[in-house]
């Protein structure tokens, strides 16, 4: 079934391709979302139409269609098909590992698989698409519905995972939205409500801003030179730093990034029963060597079920991996809102009101 073609209100275009893979756009009067169904349901674009600003980061690696298709079919490293944007990652987050005899690579395996889809609703007032797939290495079925409503700069995502075998399984579940220019700049402020952050055990770059294996808060974190760093303030690319952190103790189930100069922000509200942690990937020009060679400027704030970014086995060891019983179904949700506001967000309510 193809979408009903129209040029007003909510609308879907499912007759597109990008890099030779199936691309679907969903849009209304406020936002446009471009979803690469042919690989991971990556959200490659999230455009706020009144200001013509795309929130998503674009990888500087100039992949060709042959690169994507070849690496895709070879089940290569996540980075060899990473176009930027927003990925959903199940069942292995971070480093490679072996679980129940299957070998998992970096951020394996949902971002490297094609998803099927079914249009659930297609009217000028509301559109909804179901995306679904069965993993190749682990007997999990994943389904998510993405919905837009007329005149609302909001995305609604409802999901479920089904264990299709007679064994108990462990897995990690994460969303990997990565923000970039023109939205991202030193005018941006990061907001969330949490007790504590911890930095990665080892620095992910030779140019860190903060101390590795340390604890702190968003506005006071131990810096590499002994000072206290305010991580809520996004730095410019000239800072040439990169770090990875984890938010362990969330008080509330939201985060936001606000560009004060553009009077524009984006907020995420998420199911804290599943997504108990946030990962922060700060790449302010300092991700040296392969694959970025200090050419990236991006910020990822990622709702995750588990931490650290060291793979499924490590999250099992620290007790943060999810567990799903034979034939059990687990559900979750995420909501996204774009807002025009000239000061940092202090709270996001369940109805997506910004305070």
List keywords for this structure.
355 residues; mainly beta; Beta-galactosidase, Chain A, domain 5; eight-stranded antiparallel beta sheet; seven-stranded antiparallel beta sheet; 2 helices; 4% helix
What would you call the shape? globular
CATH architectural category: Distorted Sandwich
User: What is the tally of helical segments?
Assistant: 2
The CATH topology is Beta-galactosidase, Chain A, domain 5
CATH domain class: Mainly Beta
- Our Rg estimate from Cα atoms comes to 19 Å
Order of helices and strands: EEEEEHEEEEEEEEEEEEEEEEEEEHEE
Number of E-state strands? 26
Give the helix proportion (percent range).
under 10%
Task: Kindly report the spatial arrangement of strands forming the biggest sheet.
Answer: 9-10-11-12-26-22-21-15
What is the residue-mean pLDDT, rounded to a whole number? 95
What gap, in angstroms, lies between the N and C termini? 41 Å
Q: β content, as a range?
A: 35-45%
Given as residue ranges, the uncertain stretches (5+ residues, pLDDT < 50) are: none
- Give the domain tally: 1
Strand count, sense and barrel status of the largest sheet are: 8 strands, antiparallel
The SS-based structural class is mainly beta
Summarize the structure.
This protein is mostly beta strands and 355 residues long. The protein is built from 2 helices and 26 strands.
Please give a structural write-up.
It is a single chain. This protein has a single domain, classed as Beta-galactosidase, Chain A, domain 5. The chain starts with 10 loop residues before the first strand and ends in a 16-residue tail after the last strand. The chain is mostly beta strands and 355 residues long. The longest helix is centred in the first third of the chain and has 9 residues. The protein has two helices and 26 strands. The radius of gyration is 19 Å and the shape is globular.
């Amino acid at each position: 079934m193809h979408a009903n073609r129209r040029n007003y209100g909510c609308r879907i275009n499912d007759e597109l391709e990008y890099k030779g893979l199936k691309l679907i756009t969903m849009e209304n009067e406020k936002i446009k979302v471009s979803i690469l169904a042919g690989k991971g349901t990556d959200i490659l674009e999230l455009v706020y139409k009144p200001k013509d600003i795309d929130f998503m980061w674009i990888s500087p690696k100039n992949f060709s269609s042959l690169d994507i298709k070849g690496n895709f079919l070879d089940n290569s490293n996540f980075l060899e098909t990473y176009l930027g944007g927003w990925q959903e990652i199940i069942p292995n987050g971070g480093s490679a590992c072996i679980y129940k005899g299957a070998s998992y690579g970096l951020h394996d395996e949902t971002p490297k698989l094609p998803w099927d889809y079914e249009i659930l609703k297609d009217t000028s007032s509301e559109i909804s698409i179901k995306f679904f797939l069965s993993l190749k290495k682990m007997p999990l079925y994943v389904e998510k519905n993405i919905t837009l409503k007329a005149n609302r700069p909001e995305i609604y995502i409802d999901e479920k995972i089904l264990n299709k075998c007679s064994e108990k399984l462990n897995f990690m579940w994460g969303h990997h939205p990565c923000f970039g220019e023109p939205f991202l700049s030193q005018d941006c402020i990061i907001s969330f409500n949490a007790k504590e952050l911890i930095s990665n055990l080892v620095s992910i770059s030779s140019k860190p801003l903060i101390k590795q294996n340390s604890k702190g808060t968003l506005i006071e974190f131990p810096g590499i030179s002994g000072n206290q760093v305010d991580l809520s303030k996004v730095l410019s690319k000239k800072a040439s730093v990169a770090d990875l952190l984890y938010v362990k103790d969330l008080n509330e189930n939201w985060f936001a990034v606000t560009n004060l100069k553009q009077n524009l922000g984006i907020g995420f509200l998420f199911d804290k029963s599943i997504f108990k942690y946030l990962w922060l990937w700060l790449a302010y020009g300092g991700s040296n060597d392969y694959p970025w060679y200090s050419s990236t400027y991006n910020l990822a704030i990622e709702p995750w079920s588990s931490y650290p970014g060291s793979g499924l086995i490590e999250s099992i060891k620290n007790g943060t991996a999810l567990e799903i019983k034979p034939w059990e179904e687990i559900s979750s949700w995420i909501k996204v809102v774009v807002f025009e506001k000239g000061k940092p967000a202090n709270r996001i309510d369940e109805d997506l009101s910004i305070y």
